[in-house]
Protein: Response regulator transcription factor
Organism: Rhodoferax mekongensis
Amino acid sequence: MNSVDPSDAARLDGTLDRANSDVVLIVDDVPDNLSVLHDALDESGYTVLIATSGEAALMRAMQALPDVILLDAMMPGMDGFEVARRLKAAPQTTHIPIIFMTGLTETEYLVAALESGGVDYVTKPIKPKEVLARMGVHLAGARERRQTRNALDAFGYATITVRAADGCLMWQTPLARDLLERYCGTQAPNTPPEVLGWLQACLQTMARGDEPAKLSLERGPKRLTFRLHQQIGDSDAGGDWLIVMREVSDTAVIEAMSLSFKLTAREAEVLYWVVKGKTNKDIGDILGSSPMTVKKHLERVFVKLGVETRTAAAGMAMSRIRQLHPQFEG
C-alpha cells in the first residue's frame, strides 16, 4: 500500500488507487503517533497520507481529497480545531469526515472537536483497533455518498448536496455549478435562497408523511427543475440531501406551435406564454414589448386558430403540444 508524505504531492497527483483502497490522511506532529497509526492502517489495506502540521494538513487535504482524516486536536501553530473549521468551510473538503485524536478528555474539548466539524473522536493513547472501527463506520457512509455521486455524474445528471442544518452547498457536479450560476447567480458554498427555502419546505412536508413537490425556476422558455433524490449521511439536524437538477427547454415546443398553426416566431412565443397563464403585461415584460403589441399579436393568433378567446386558444395549443411533446408541463 501507499504511504505518502506531503513533500511528494506533485508525484502523487492522479496516482491514488481509489478503486481498491480508501485514502486516509493522518495529521499529527508526534512521529511516534504517526508511526503506530501508519503501520496499522497500511496493514489493513488503506492508502496512508501524512501531515505533521495544520498548514500541511490543509494543503494535503485539498490536493488529495482523502476519504477520511484523522486529526490531532493539539498541535503547535494551527491546532486541529482550526484545521477542521477551515476544511469544513471549503466546498472541496467540507464532505470529508474528520475523526479527532485527543488526549484532552474534558467535555469542553470534546464539544469543541464536534462543533468545529468533527464527526467522531478517539482518545490518546491511540488504540489502532478502536481507530479502525470508528473509521469503518464513517467510511461506509462516505463510500455510499461517493458511489451515488459518481453514478449520477456518469449519467450526466446535475446534482448537488445540501446540508440541511446550515444550508451549506457541500458538493456539486460541474454541470450543476454552471446551472446554478446561470439561473441563480450563486456559487458554492452558498445555496440559492429559493432552493434552500424549497428544501426546508420539503422536509416539513415529508415530516407530515406527504410527498415533496419539485421546484421549478423559469428563465424564458427554459426552466430548471429540482427534485429531492435521497438523504445521505447522518440524519442529525436534518442531514445532507442529494438534489437532482434538470434543465428543460421549451424552444422546440414554440417552434412546433409555429409550424402547426402557421404562426410567426413572435406569435408562437405569445401563444406559448398564454398557455403558461401569463397576462398581456407579463408577456410584454418577458418579450420586451408593450401590452398593446402583445394584444395585436394575440389577435392575429385568434384569427389563425379560428378562436375568439384566450382560453380557447390556450386549449387548442395545449392539445396540439401534448400530441407532439407529451412531457410538456403547462
